[in-house]
Amino acid sequence: MTATLEHNRVLTVEHLSVSFDSGKRQPPTSVVRDVSFSIGKGEIVAIVGESGCGKSTTGLALLGLIEGNASVRGCIRLARKDGRTVDVVMLRERELQRMRGNDAAMIFQEPMSSLNPLHSIGAQIEEALGTHRKMRPRERATEALRLISMLGIPSPAECLKSYPHQLSGGMRQRVMIAIALSCHPALLIADEPTTALDVTVQAQIVERMKQLQQETQMAILFVTHDLSLVAEIADRALVMYAGEIVETGPVGELFNRPLMPYTQALMRSRPRLGDARHRVKPIPGGAPNPASLPGGCAFHKRCEHAVVGRCDKQVPSLEATNDGLRQVRCLRWRELEQTPQCMPVLQGQTI
Fold first, then answer.
1. What percent of the chain has pLDDT over 70?
2. 47 CB neighbour count, 10 Å cutoff
3. Closest of 156, 190, 155 to residue 173, by C-alpha
4. Is 83 exposed, middle or buried (0-12, 13-18, 19+ CB in 10 A)?
5. Which residues, 6 or more positions from 149, have their beta carbon under 8 angstroms from its beta carbon?
6. Is 93 left (phi over 0), alpha (psi -120 to 50) or beta?
7. How many angstroms from the chain centroid is the CA of residue 31?
8. What is the three-class DSSP state of 208?
9. Which residues contact 129 (CB under 8 A, 6 or more apart)?
């Protein structure tokens, strides 16, 4: 990370772990394990990985939204807009409510369950504006109309009068984005924000988010499984597998020369338009159950480079590369890096 970002960190996460108690006299199930990373002002960082790897749980933990029989450990330091830095893990619910939406906001993956079916779209956008930006009713109505119009929703005035069930999934998703952006948060967590949108609208939304990020220097944590989207929007990427970070680095370097076999497998499993020679190669098997992780490296049963007696016995640590720009969790990454046939050749290709 550059010196500028070192001195302008919006979010610093240290040794974050999230576990759930099954209530059946069994040990708690750990779904996020010892995750550490930071995001600087004006930076976009993506978390990528298969479903069930812990991406969304990490995002929810950052806003104190893990409830019920869960245990959250570690440190989540957030630099608020008023200049104070707080540890989200230590905040009480009332303090969390003041923080959410104003200092840090989230675009949730499922808009239908996130919007209140009993209130109109306009009322839900205006609620955030009144709570955090202290706008008067007329100002709130004007700003809500501007936000909806900005996101390309047709007939914006009618949309504000509508209720969630009257809108399509894509329209509801854009409303969620409008609510999240309404108070200009210092940190935006976007959990699969374009899943319900068609390709054209997705491009518009991504472009608008990039513009807002540049204008306000908002930090963005982008949670997604779409590698093409990561290549388009993110500065750095964190690859997660089985609740752990297994590789980090600048997007260009990580995509062009992935060092962790899981990251390599993700690259091979994605289609590439315009490359007739490329053949999609799915990753064999499925992600392990967090309640019964295999011994050694969590990826070894699906890894074509695993060595019996080593990868199934030793737990790899997250190691920094010599240049300090990347981190890799693999026992064999240094020797595999020297074996060209083990590495996907992506240099010179469009990501």
1. 91
2. 27
3. 190
4. exposed
5. 156
6. alpha
7. 15
8. helix
9. 135, 139, 140, 143, 144, 182, 183
231, amino acid identity? A
Each residue's pLDDT tens digit, 125-182: 999 898 888 889 999 999 999 999 888 788 999 999 999 999 987 788 889 888 988 8
CA 157 to chain centre: 32
The pair of three-digit structure tokens given for residue 270, joined into one six-digit string: 């994605």
Query: How far apart, in whole angstroms, are the C-alpha atoms of residue 139 and residue 135?
Result: 6
Distance CA 69, CA 23 (A): 8
Contact 107, 59 (CB under 8 A): no
For residue 76, CA distances in Å to 33, 64, 90, 350 come to 14, 10, 9, 36
Q: Is the dihedral of CA 63, 38, 125, 120 positive or negative?
A: negative
The predicted pLDDT at position 68 comes to 76
Q: What is the DSSP letter of 100?
A: B
End-to-end CA distance of the chain: 22
Beta bridge partners, 9, equal 40
Q: Cβ contacts of residue 230 below 8 Å, gap of 6+?
A: 46, 48, 222, 224, 237, 251, 255
